[in-house]
Amino acid sequence: MLKRVDVRFLKQPEEVGLEKPVFIEGLPGIGHVGKLVADHLVKELKAEKVVEIYSHHFPPQVMVNEDGTIRLPKNEVYAYKSKGDSPDLLILVGDFQSMNGEGHFELVNAYIEVAKKFGAVRIYTLGGYGVGKLVEEPYVIGAANSLKLVEELKSYGVRIERGEPSGGIIGASGLLLGVSQLEGIEAACLMGVTSGYMVDPKSAKAVLEVLMKMLNLKVSVEALDERAKEMERLIAQIKEMQEAAMQQWKSDEDLRYFR
Amino acid sequence: MLKRVDVRFLKQPEEVGLEKPVFIEGLPGIGHVGKLVADHLVKELKAEKVVEIYSHHFPPQVMVNEDGTIRLPKNEVYAYKSKGDSPDLLILVGDFQSMNGEGHFELVNAYIEVAKKFGAVRIYTLGGYGVGKLVEEPYVIGAANSLKLVEELKSYGVRIERGEPSGGIIGASGLLLGVSQLEGIEAACLMGVTSGYMVDPKSAKAVLEVLMKMLNLKVSVEALDERAKEMERLIAQIKEMQEAAMQQWKSDEDLRYFR
Amino acid sequence: MLKRVDVRFLKQPEEVGLEKPVFIEGLPGIGHVGKLVADHLVKELKAEKVVEIYSHHFPPQVMVNEDGTIRLPKNEVYAYKSKGDSPDLLILVGDFQSMNGEGHFELVNAYIEVAKKFGAVRIYTLGGYGVGKLVEEPYVIGAANSLKLVEELKSYGVRIERGEPSGGIIGASGLLLGVSQLEGIEAACLMGVTSGYMVDPKSAKAVLEVLMKMLNLKVSVEALDERAKEMERLIAQIKEMQEAAMQQWKSDEDLRYFR
Amino acid sequence: MLKRVDVRFLKQPEEVGLEKPVFIEGLPGIGHVGKLVADHLVKELKAEKVVEIYSHHFPPQVMVNEDGTIRLPKNEVYAYKSKGDSPDLLILVGDFQSMNGEGHFELVNAYIEVAKKFGAVRIYTLGGYGVGKLVEEPYVIGAANSLKLVEELKSYGVRIERGEPSGGIIGASGLLLGVSQLEGIEAACLMGVTSGYMVDPKSAKAVLEVLMKMLNLKVSVEALDERAKEMERLIAQIKEMQEAAMQQWKSDEDLRYFR
């Protein structure tokens, strides 16, 4: 039996023993910026999976793995017990967000319940801020659920742009800030500026760098760098092809003159 | 945890101490007429916020304020303790109406529960009546959930047009009348005639003036006047630009003759 | 407070004192055939309203009456205590059917609950069967939830067409048959053949005539006849206008020849 | 009263007395491949209906039978008590899958509950894998909810294609694998490759043949063969008509030359 929102603890919070963890959300969204950062953190920190979340609000299907096995769409929470000066972490990653409006609220309720059970003291949500054109030098804009935290974001170089994103922050990244505001938990959203047209590891790297500063945490960014370079080669190829096509079209136009 | 419809009392009704208040609804809708009037009243009367309503039926997002802080979509009820001959007031304002049909009914149930807890004796809902063309001299049409109240509306100059709006009154403004009819609470809807194409402070002013008469209440209309003038300047500009474009097009047509 | 499906008894079944009533459904649908018949019966028989049904599955609005008062969308059940040889009747009429799939099932559950509380022994659902072209001589096709009842329909001149309507019987008219089949209540659907393009009182009359025979009931059909004649005048007018337009177009075509 | 998901046992599991049955799902889907196989098995094995499942998630209608009787959309589970070396079977067939995402999850919960009540030890789901072009020699691809079962599929000639279907397995065929994975029940999906454009008995036969080997079961495939031949005649006819139309079009083109 799968419940409407089905939160399954693989380990109890007291077993995991995190101390005042920071909760980080990186689910799929614009440019997959948040997802790239959160997945990267889980991998680099070798964080341990502690919660699985299934839901009737995810697509009614299974995905097929390379080896022919299948898996249900799910969200997962990973725990990282800090070895240094950085705080302990809980990292929320996953395949999908809710397929419908009400589901977003129900899932965010579940995320916050998990955060509270682990004693989380702060929430960072990660996402992309789509600007509809290629971004050469991505930067990070932010928003938070308290003015104090807005100021803190600024001190780390996060830009606060008057009322931006003007369309609001949609989905889990936004609602986590809103609902935790009512619960008295500090929460901020970091958004990497991105075209919004494709997966953007370069923007993800910009977000990761801010996040590392804020968390006093050091992880390798190599894997993201690698993917960013790949992406740039791909974009260069596309541009070249477009230019070639344009040239061809122009010479056709010229020829038309003589027909 | 945010409930499906989440009504949060900031002050208990007995603390607020309203006597037989009139409940006024002004949520977003056609020409934002109702919202303009209700927001204006809250501001001019310096009414006090007493209830916040959150819901899974609002869009799954947060809005970003100018200072970088965020807020959840919500509806709010303000209380005004009368100093003169006008009745005490409860004023319902907010960011959104429900995104789906069932949500409208659930939210209206909540609004009426609030009204009853405060002992409201009458409900006025405010809205726009879109006619699809610019309206030079906006007037106010009405409907009510009892014939006695229809007659009362007429005595204040509100027009009753046979079966209008023919498409019915949609959303909270309509359902509040319908559900309170079953509950035995008198309720009327005041609709400012408007084009329906843009925010219409002039139509809002017409509604406000009727409402003030009905409530025996006096507030400054200056702010609405200001916005109405701004809007008219804007419309004049648009008209001018359209005429210029038309002229240009005509002279192009003339020239075409010589080609 | 309006419940998701809100059934309100104006009179208790024992007060009304029907004996083994037949339950007749005539809600809006194809050609409004069922609605025309059921509304007509309520009026001619001066049946008494005994139940009102409100629902979150109806459109979130109120309708405005001619006199400026409003009313919530609702379904109603009327009771008719027979004076002659016909059975007692319960007649379900209303403004709307459900706006969504699940709502249809929830409402039909409520209708059947009402039918059972009044001790109904049989259900007739009325509707139109759209054939996509004008129908000169409408007839009635039928379906039922038992073979015995199918045979009975045939004996009253109702046509049974192999597997028709091939798309099934949609909405309350169909589901009432299906759910009552599981409850062991006999139920049949009478469908007047109609174009499906407009309200069709002629088709309604055909259904009414069959129904009267089946119920051993006699009511005036004058009002339906009147509306049918009106409709025919309207159709004749439309045809004339179409022909005139066609002539005009042809003569324009001819003139074009000389240009 | 019909419940949202309404599971009705016609016989209790202990009455039926199946021993460690295999549960087979064949609901409507791509090319109706799964449905064709499961319906065929029910017929050939003269399996006994033991469960009916109704739901608010099916279309709000009834279907009309040839004889004028009606039936509600439903799913059914049939039981087959083996006489030989094959395992006992439970076979899920039906008219529809859920009309909405959440309904898929609720129905799959019900299917698994039924499977567990009968003590099912394994689940096979059957479907089609649409490739968007005519398939001359259909074969069967598979996926499973454990690596061990994937290997077993391979040993029966089922192809495992890396991560295919890349869009996942949608609906009951997929979710049954996913949810039973969490419940610790082994489950595999067999998909007959098909165009996806029409009902495909040839692809169904390919799936049936694999399934028979896996179940150590022998049933006649004649009926499917018959339908496959019919289908091929139909496709040949369509091709011929297309070619004729093409010829006609070409000769029209040629004539145009002379006009």
Plain-language structure description:
Four copies of one chain form a homotetramer. Chain A has 259 residues and is an alpha/beta fold. Chain A has two domains: 5-220, Rossmann fold (3-Layer(aba) Sandwich); 221-259. The first copy, chain A, has seven helices and eleven strands. An eight-stranded mixed β-sheet of chain A has the order 1-3-6-7-2-8-11-9, sandwiched between helices. In chain A, helix 2 packs across helix 6, helix 3 (101-117) packs across helix 5 and helix 6 (201-215) runs antiparallel to helix 7 (222-258). The first copy, chain A, is globular and about 75 Å long. The N and C termini of chain A lie far apart (72 Å). In chain A, 47% of the residues are buried. The mean pLDDT of chain A is 94. Strand 10 of chain A pairs antiparallel with strand 4 (61-64) of chain B.
Provide a brief overview of the structure.
The structure is a homotetramer of 259-residue chains. With 259 residues, chain A is of the alpha/beta class.
